[in-house]
Amino acid sequence: MLSIWTMVPWHSSSVLRALIIILAQGPSLGFHVNLKKCELFGVSDLSSFPPSIQTSNQPNIEILGAPIGDAEFCQKILLYVDSQVALVLLRLCFSFCKLAHVARATPPHLILGSMEKLDADVRRSFADCTDVDLPDSAWRQAQFSLRRGGFGLRSLALHSSAAYIASLCGSDDVISTPHLENAITHYNTCVPLSDSLSISSLDGCTPQTKETI
Fold first, then answer.
1. Low-confidence residues in the chain, pLDDT < 50
2. Strand, coil or helix: what is 135?
3. Fewer CB in a 10 Å sphere around the end CB: N or C, the chain?
């Protein structure tokens, strides 16, 4: 099976002659044309082509996502992004996953303001993609992981302290520093009291502890 689309600056009669040659000589070479799957676009008379070929004289067309036509049409197509595609791009290419290394390496209190602005950008982009402005409670659910019923748009500001603490737990010995103390303070404001941390609770940090954080 061979799928081809191309643009040829020929008159329709030249295209027709080429098609006749392909139909006549192609089968002997193992090349068979399925005319029902062929489409022909042109501004001249296309009535001479086999009726099983789909034809169109529309001045503006889209082939495999590529717009062909006037400037207004082409710009409109390029600026439009399918909402589902946009959501996938937002989740995989712009949200927490692309800045996880920053959250793990930089003390959260130094970047909290920037993280909050980025969270606001993600929320605004989500609203643009879906044409829905979620209330705060619904947006918090959207920030859950997919397996927990959310959209996987994790908050950078909310998770930055956990990421930083988990990164430090990867070292052999956790040393108390003002940066770590600030991170723990921020972390404790984001979790229930039963899940709060202290410097001493990080001693002998295990992979299971990192997973919990």
1. 1
2. coil
3. N
Predicted pLDDT at 79: 72
As a three-state string, the secondary structure of 99-115 is CHHHHHHCCHHHHHHHH
Per-residue pLDDT, 70: 86
Number of Cα atoms under 13 Å in the Cβ half of residue 19:
19
User: What's CA 47's distance to the chain center, in Å?
Assistant: 43
The model's pTM is 0.58
Which pLDDT belongs to residue 86?
84
Residue 192, phi-psi category: left (phi > 0), alpha (psi -120 to 50), beta (remainder): beta
The set of long-range contacts for 48-52, using a CB threshold of 8 Å and a minimum separation of 24, is 48/12, 48/13, 48/16, 49/12, 49/16, 49/19
Q: Crossing angle of helices 108-130/156-168, nearest 10°?
A: 140
Which amino acid belongs to residue 59? P
